[in-house]
């Protein structure tokens, strides 16, 4: 109640007009509040402080992404909504993965005052891949980050957050080529190889390369809304939101081991993807029982025959969408799908896009294709 009394006395003191005992609270409070709003408008908003940590082996392109995106996020008056600084351990020059070094302006103490910390892309070191541990100076720098600071990893720097214990029990992503290694090294973390980024609230991870742009734009959108993020994307000449996920870029290599027992049947099936192939028919071609064929097939490819067949049909459909202008219905038939709906269903499940959206992203430029 004491706090309420203080506020009431303050308001009375402000709104009193005329002589003793004369008050006009309705008019005066309104005028006071209006004046207070005008005063608040003249006080510039605090910019959100972003610290980017660069370690030896950093990828130069990825290192520049946070500053490029966040510096283009502007308020209505054109002022920047973020301030971005780059630091290294000890403030030392950083050896990049290319043939040059970078000089940064700050040491790791910048992380202690940041509102958001971004770990720029660094491929995991042999020590990290072998032991799941970090150098002591990197561990100390990450421990100095405030508990309320937002932490972001770009690409394979998710390994650093995992090794520091920041991803325990969470879902995460990293570059699809290293998702299996990540899962083996950190089994307590759910790794998703299909998405462009994962937002856990305070901790966020992104997939490879340009997915860092997607994640930074997502943060701008989360902090300041769609219009600010869209304007920042336009200034960067980037898509404000990309459809689909990382799955659309994953390569599925066809085994070429002709000496294996099911190899001839695999090649036979690849030449007949448009036909209604069955497990029994594939086993019969291999001169095996269904049980033996399935067991050997899984030993040689890591997949069941029907799962392998579905992957190959999907891969062939992707190839045709990328390299031809055939209508989607015709591509569905050529790849052994019962109809275009079945093809679209597979694309949404495993690629995260419709066939038409995939073609717009990866198809022959400048050519209008059939749907």
TrEMBL record:
Domain HTH araC/xylS-type residue range list: 263-361
Keyword line: Transcription, Transcription regulation
Top-level lineage group: Bacteria
InterPro entries: Class_I_gatase-like, DJ-1/PfpI, Homeodomain-like_sf, HTH_AraC, INH-QAR
UniProt xrefs under Gene3D superfamilies: 3.40.50.880, Homeodomain-like
Cited SMART domains: HTH_ARAC
Keyword Transcription regulation: yes
PANTHER family: ARAC-FAMILY TRANSCRIPTIONAL REGULATOR, HTH-TYPE TRANSCRIPTIONAL REGULATOR RV1931C
Protein name, as recorded: Transcriptional regulator
Species whose genome carries this gene: Streptomyces variabilis
